[in-house]
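[step 3/7] fold_predict: job queued, chain A
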Amino acid sequence: MASENAAIEPEISVQANNPEFYEDSSAEQVITKKDLNKMVWRSLLLQASFNYERMQAAGWLYSILPGLKKIHKNKHDLSESMKSHMEFFNTHPFLVNIIMGIVLAMEERKQNRNTIRAIRVAMMGPLGGIGDALFWLTLLPICVGIGASLGADGNPMGALVFLIIFNVVHFGLRFGLMRYGYNAGTNAISSLKENTKKVSHAASIVGLTVVGGLIASFVQLKANLVIHAGKAEIALQEDLLDKIMPNMLPLGYTLLMYYLLKRGLSPVILILITVVIGIIGKIPFPFGTIL
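[step 4/7] structure written:
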Protein backbone atom coordinates (compact mmCIF):
# COMPACT_ATOMS: atom_id res chain seq x y z
CA MET A 1 0.00 0.00 0.00
CA ALA A 2 2.84 2.30 0.89
CA SER A 3 4.51 1.57 -2.43
CA GLU A 4 1.24 2.36 -4.34
CA ASN A 5 0.93 5.72 -2.58
CA ALA A 6 4.55 6.44 -3.41
CA ALA A 7 3.78 5.79 -7.09
CA ILE A 8 0.68 7.99 -7.14
CA GLU A 9 2.21 10.96 -5.31
CA PRO A 10 4.88 11.68 -7.97
CA GLU A 11 2.16 11.49 -10.68
CA ILE A 12 -0.02 14.01 -8.83
CA SER A 13 3.03 16.18 -8.33
CA VAL A 14 3.80 16.06 -12.07
CA GLN A 15 0.22 17.08 -12.93
CA ALA A 16 0.29 19.91 -10.38
CA ASN A 17 3.50 21.30 -11.90
CA ASN A 18 2.42 20.86 -15.50
CA PRO A 19 0.71 24.00 -16.87
CA GLU A 20 -1.25 21.85 -19.33
CA PHE A 21 -3.20 20.22 -16.48
CA TYR A 22 -5.99 22.00 -14.67
CA GLU A 23 -5.49 23.18 -11.08
CA ASP A 24 -8.79 21.62 -10.05
CA SER A 25 -8.46 18.02 -11.25
CA SER A 26 -11.69 16.75 -9.64
CA ALA A 27 -13.84 15.16 -12.36
CA GLU A 28 -17.61 15.38 -12.01
CA GLN A 29 -20.44 14.82 -14.49
CA VAL A 30 -22.24 18.16 -14.65
CA ILE A 31 -23.37 18.41 -18.28
CA THR A 32 -27.07 17.61 -18.80
CA LYS A 33 -29.12 16.93 -21.94
CA LYS A 34 -30.53 20.44 -21.62
CA ASP A 35 -26.98 21.84 -21.69
CA LEU A 36 -26.11 19.77 -24.77
CA ASN A 37 -29.24 20.98 -26.58
CA LYS A 38 -28.46 24.59 -25.66
CA MET A 39 -24.96 24.26 -27.09
CA VAL A 40 -26.32 22.73 -30.29
CA TRP A 41 -28.47 25.82 -30.84
CA ARG A 42 -25.49 28.09 -30.10
CA SER A 43 -23.41 26.16 -32.65
CA LEU A 44 -25.64 27.61 -35.40
CA LEU A 45 -23.54 30.76 -34.95
CA LEU A 46 -20.27 28.88 -35.46
CA GLN A 47 -19.35 30.96 -38.49
CA ALA A 48 -20.82 34.26 -37.32
CA SER A 49 -17.34 35.66 -36.57
CA PHE A 50 -15.43 33.73 -39.23
CA ASN A 51 -12.04 35.29 -40.01
CA TYR A 52 -8.91 34.27 -41.89
CA GLU A 53 -6.69 34.13 -38.81
CA ARG A 54 -8.55 31.67 -36.57
CA MET A 55 -11.56 30.95 -38.80
CA GLN A 56 -14.34 29.42 -36.62
CA ALA A 57 -12.48 29.68 -33.28
CA ALA A 58 -14.64 32.46 -31.77
CA GLY A 59 -17.85 30.70 -32.81
CA TRP A 60 -16.51 27.42 -31.42
CA LEU A 61 -15.78 28.97 -28.03
CA TYR A 62 -19.15 30.73 -27.98
CA SER A 63 -20.89 27.41 -28.67
CA ILE A 64 -19.27 25.41 -25.86
CA LEU A 65 -18.91 28.21 -23.32
CA PRO A 66 -21.97 27.22 -21.22
CA GLY A 67 -20.48 23.74 -20.80
CA LEU A 68 -17.04 25.06 -19.88
CA LYS A 69 -18.54 27.36 -17.25
CA LYS A 70 -20.34 24.42 -15.61
CA ILE A 71 -17.26 22.20 -15.72
CA HIS A 72 -14.63 24.66 -14.51
CA LYS A 73 -15.58 26.31 -11.22
CA ASN A 74 -11.95 27.41 -10.82
CA LYS A 75 -11.63 30.77 -12.63
CA HIS A 76 -8.00 30.15 -13.60
CA ASP A 77 -8.92 26.80 -15.14
CA LEU A 78 -11.83 28.39 -17.02
CA SER A 79 -9.54 31.11 -18.32
CA GLU A 80 -6.92 28.63 -19.52
CA SER A 81 -9.58 26.46 -21.13
CA MET A 82 -11.10 29.44 -22.98
CA LYS A 83 -7.66 30.51 -24.25
CA SER A 84 -7.06 27.00 -25.53
CA HIS A 85 -10.38 26.92 -27.37
CA MET A 86 -9.72 30.29 -29.02
CA GLU A 87 -6.97 28.71 -31.10
CA PHE A 88 -7.40 28.03 -34.83
CA PHE A 89 -10.43 25.88 -35.61
CA ASN A 90 -12.17 25.03 -38.87
CA THR A 91 -14.45 22.13 -39.73
CA HIS A 92 -17.77 21.45 -41.41
CA PRO A 93 -20.42 23.53 -39.58
CA PHE A 94 -23.04 20.75 -39.66
CA LEU A 95 -20.76 18.09 -38.12
CA VAL A 96 -19.10 20.26 -35.51
CA ASN A 97 -21.36 18.91 -32.77
CA ILE A 98 -19.69 15.52 -32.57
CA ILE A 99 -16.36 17.26 -31.87
CA MET A 100 -18.10 19.43 -29.29
CA GLY A 101 -19.52 16.37 -27.54
CA ILE A 102 -16.15 14.59 -27.38
CA VAL A 103 -14.26 17.70 -26.24
CA LEU A 104 -16.83 18.43 -23.53
CA ALA A 105 -16.55 14.84 -22.27
CA MET A 106 -12.76 15.26 -22.09
CA GLU A 107 -13.03 18.64 -20.37
CA GLU A 108 -15.40 17.12 -17.86
CA ARG A 109 -12.80 14.47 -17.05
CA LYS A 110 -10.20 17.25 -16.66
CA GLN A 111 -7.85 15.74 -19.19
CA ASN A 112 -4.60 17.35 -20.32
CA ARG A 113 -5.27 20.45 -22.46
CA ASN A 114 -2.67 19.31 -24.99
CA THR A 115 -4.59 16.06 -25.45
CA ILE A 116 -7.89 17.91 -25.85
CA ARG A 117 -6.27 20.26 -28.37
CA ALA A 118 -4.80 17.34 -30.32
CA ILE A 119 -8.17 15.56 -30.51
CA ARG A 120 -9.89 18.73 -31.69
CA VAL A 121 -7.30 19.36 -34.40
CA ALA A 122 -7.21 15.71 -35.48
CA MET A 123 -10.98 15.58 -35.99
CA MET A 124 -11.73 18.88 -37.67
CA GLY A 125 -10.04 18.02 -41.00
CA PRO A 126 -11.60 14.59 -41.70
CA LEU A 127 -15.06 15.76 -40.62
CA GLY A 128 -14.74 18.75 -42.93
CA GLY A 129 -14.21 16.38 -45.86
CA ILE A 130 -17.06 14.07 -44.84
CA GLY A 131 -19.43 17.00 -44.35
CA ASP A 132 -18.77 18.40 -47.81
CA ALA A 133 -19.44 15.02 -49.43
CA LEU A 134 -22.42 14.24 -47.22
CA PHE A 135 -24.25 17.57 -47.27
CA TRP A 136 -23.20 19.69 -50.26
CA LEU A 137 -22.69 16.82 -52.69
CA THR A 138 -25.42 14.39 -51.57
CA LEU A 139 -28.17 15.74 -49.31
CA LEU A 140 -28.50 19.20 -50.84
CA PRO A 141 -28.83 18.04 -54.50
CA ILE A 142 -31.37 15.36 -53.49
CA CYS A 143 -33.51 17.81 -51.50
CA VAL A 144 -33.26 20.51 -54.17
CA GLY A 145 -34.16 17.94 -56.83
CA ILE A 146 -37.31 16.91 -54.96
CA GLY A 147 -38.35 20.51 -54.28
CA ALA A 148 -37.54 21.68 -57.82
CA SER A 149 -39.50 18.78 -59.32
CA LEU A 150 -42.58 19.79 -57.35
CA GLY A 151 -42.05 23.43 -58.30
CA ALA A 152 -41.63 22.59 -62.00
CA ASP A 153 -45.00 20.80 -61.87
CA GLY A 154 -46.60 23.97 -60.51
CA ASN A 155 -46.79 22.84 -56.87
CA PRO A 156 -46.16 25.89 -54.62
CA MET A 157 -45.08 23.56 -51.78
CA GLY A 158 -41.82 22.72 -53.59
CA ALA A 159 -39.69 25.24 -51.69
CA LEU A 160 -41.30 24.29 -48.37
CA VAL A 161 -40.75 20.56 -48.97
CA PHE A 162 -37.08 21.26 -49.74
CA LEU A 163 -36.62 23.21 -46.49
CA ILE A 164 -38.42 20.59 -44.40
CA ILE A 165 -36.52 17.56 -45.76
CA PHE A 166 -33.14 19.27 -45.61
CA ASN A 167 -33.54 20.64 -42.10
CA VAL A 168 -35.03 17.46 -40.63
CA VAL A 169 -31.83 15.63 -41.61
CA HIS A 170 -29.64 18.59 -40.73
CA PHE A 171 -30.95 19.15 -37.21
CA GLY A 172 -31.40 15.43 -36.56
CA LEU A 173 -27.69 14.95 -37.20
CA ARG A 174 -26.72 17.96 -35.12
CA PHE A 175 -28.56 16.83 -31.98
CA GLY A 176 -27.79 13.14 -32.51
CA LEU A 177 -24.06 13.66 -33.06
CA MET A 178 -23.79 15.95 -30.04
CA ARG A 179 -25.17 13.27 -27.73
CA TYR A 180 -23.24 10.49 -29.46
CA GLY A 181 -19.96 12.39 -29.13
CA TYR A 182 -20.54 13.25 -25.49
CA ASN A 183 -21.65 9.75 -24.48
CA ALA A 184 -18.93 7.96 -26.45
CA GLY A 185 -16.18 10.40 -25.49
CA THR A 186 -12.78 9.52 -26.89
CA ASN A 187 -14.06 6.03 -27.81
CA ALA A 188 -15.88 7.66 -30.75
CA ILE A 189 -12.57 8.68 -32.30
CA SER A 190 -11.40 5.15 -33.11
CA SER A 191 -14.81 4.35 -34.62
CA LEU A 192 -14.72 7.50 -36.73
CA LYS A 193 -11.17 6.79 -37.83
CA GLU A 194 -12.19 3.37 -39.15
CA ASN A 195 -15.29 4.56 -41.00
CA THR A 196 -14.27 8.03 -42.21
CA LYS A 197 -12.92 6.94 -45.59
CA LYS A 198 -15.81 4.53 -46.24
CA VAL A 199 -18.49 7.13 -45.42
CA SER A 200 -16.76 9.82 -47.46
CA HIS A 201 -16.31 7.49 -50.45
CA ALA A 202 -19.92 6.24 -50.32
CA ALA A 203 -21.32 9.77 -49.98
CA SER A 204 -19.22 10.94 -52.93
CA ILE A 205 -20.55 8.12 -55.13
CA VAL A 206 -24.16 8.82 -54.19
CA GLY A 207 -23.66 12.56 -54.61
CA LEU A 208 -22.08 12.29 -58.05
CA THR A 209 -24.86 9.93 -59.15
CA VAL A 210 -27.48 12.43 -58.00
CA VAL A 211 -25.68 15.33 -59.72
CA GLY A 212 -25.52 13.31 -62.96
CA GLY A 213 -29.26 12.64 -62.77
CA LEU A 214 -29.98 16.31 -62.10
CA ILE A 215 -27.94 17.38 -65.14
CA ALA A 216 -29.94 15.07 -67.40
CA SER A 217 -33.28 16.15 -65.89
CA PHE A 218 -32.91 19.89 -65.34
CA VAL A 219 -30.32 21.24 -67.80
CA GLN A 220 -32.44 21.88 -70.89
CA LEU A 221 -30.22 22.74 -73.87
CA LYS A 222 -31.35 21.85 -77.36
CA ALA A 223 -29.67 22.95 -80.58
CA ASN A 224 -31.88 23.58 -83.62
CA LEU A 225 -28.97 23.71 -86.05
CA VAL A 226 -29.35 21.56 -89.15
CA ILE A 227 -26.40 20.47 -91.30
CA HIS A 228 -27.12 20.32 -95.04
CA ALA A 229 -25.12 17.71 -96.98
CA GLY A 230 -26.45 17.70 -100.52
CA LYS A 231 -30.12 16.84 -100.29
CA ALA A 232 -29.66 15.31 -96.86
CA GLU A 233 -30.48 17.31 -93.71
CA ILE A 234 -28.95 16.27 -90.43
CA ALA A 235 -30.22 17.78 -87.17
CA LEU A 236 -27.08 18.50 -85.14
CA GLN A 237 -28.45 17.34 -81.81
CA GLU A 238 -31.11 14.75 -82.62
CA ASP A 239 -29.31 13.02 -85.48
CA LEU A 240 -25.73 13.42 -84.35
CA LEU A 241 -24.97 14.34 -80.74
CA ASP A 242 -27.81 12.37 -79.11
CA LYS A 243 -26.86 9.34 -81.22
CA ILE A 244 -23.39 9.44 -79.72
CA MET A 245 -24.68 9.92 -76.15
CA PRO A 246 -28.13 11.09 -74.95
CA ASN A 247 -28.07 14.57 -73.39
CA MET A 248 -24.50 15.11 -74.55
CA LEU A 249 -25.04 18.85 -75.09
CA PRO A 250 -26.39 19.58 -71.56
CA LEU A 251 -23.54 17.53 -70.10
CA GLY A 252 -20.97 19.45 -72.13
CA TYR A 253 -22.46 22.79 -71.10
CA THR A 254 -22.47 21.75 -67.42
CA LEU A 255 -18.83 20.66 -67.61
CA LEU A 256 -17.96 23.98 -69.28
CA MET A 257 -19.61 25.89 -66.43
CA TYR A 258 -17.76 23.73 -63.89
CA TYR A 259 -14.48 24.42 -65.66
CA LEU A 260 -15.09 28.18 -65.70
CA LEU A 261 -16.08 28.05 -62.02
CA LYS A 262 -12.80 26.31 -61.20
CA ARG A 263 -10.95 28.96 -63.22
CA GLY A 264 -12.25 31.58 -60.82
CA LEU A 265 -15.34 33.01 -62.54
CA SER A 266 -18.09 33.90 -60.10
CA PRO A 267 -21.48 32.12 -60.26
CA VAL A 268 -23.14 35.46 -61.06
CA ILE A 269 -20.98 35.86 -64.18
CA LEU A 270 -21.81 32.29 -65.23
CA ILE A 271 -25.53 32.98 -64.84
CA LEU A 272 -25.19 36.11 -66.98
CA ILE A 273 -23.29 34.14 -69.63
CA THR A 274 -26.11 31.56 -69.64
CA VAL A 275 -28.74 34.29 -70.01
CA VAL A 276 -26.84 35.91 -72.90
CA ILE A 277 -26.43 32.54 -74.66
CA GLY A 278 -30.16 31.90 -74.22
CA ILE A 279 -31.08 35.30 -75.72
CA ILE A 280 -28.69 34.93 -78.67
CA GLY A 281 -29.87 31.35 -79.20
CA LYS A 282 -33.49 32.50 -79.67
CA ILE A 283 -32.71 35.29 -82.18
CA PRO A 284 -34.33 34.34 -85.55
CA PHE A 285 -31.43 34.24 -88.03
CA PRO A 286 -32.05 33.55 -91.78
CA PHE A 287 -31.19 29.90 -91.19
CA GLY A 288 -33.41 29.73 -88.09
CA THR A 289 -32.69 29.90 -84.33
CA ILE A 290 -29.59 28.32 -82.80
CA LEU A 291 -31.41 26.98 -79.75
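[step 5/7] annotate
Residues 1-12 have pLDDT under 50 and may be disordered.
The first helix runs from residue 2 to 17.
exit 0
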